[in-house]
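Support request, priority: normal
Reporter: lab tech (M.K.)
Component: structure prediction queue

Hi team, I submitted a job for Putative transcriptional regulator from Hespellia stercorisuis DSM 15480 yesterday, and the status page still shows it as pending. I've pasted the exact input below so you can check whether something in the sequence is tripping the parser. The sequence length should be 66 residues. Please let me know if I need to resubmit or if it's stuck on your end.
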Amino acid sequence: MIVYMDLENLLKEKHISKNKLCEACNLQRTQLNNYCKNKVTRIDFTILAKLCEFLDCTPNDILKLK
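Reply from support: The job had stalled in the queue. We restarted it manually and it finished. Here are the results:
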């Protein structure tokens, strides 16, 4: 199995722009794009917690198994 981030789809479902998310979670746009495109090999739990809090979701909504 492979763990991947379904963050981009979640943003579309919730109608939230990447710019708004970057500003709210204090992320650089490049960093967010890497998360959205699954170009990260290690997930920062602090960032994951910020994403979940802002998006009002759980890690299960962001992290998926393939």
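Residues 35 and 43 are 9 Å apart (CA to CA). Residues 45-55 form the longest helix (11 residues). Let us know if anything else looks off. Ticket resolved.
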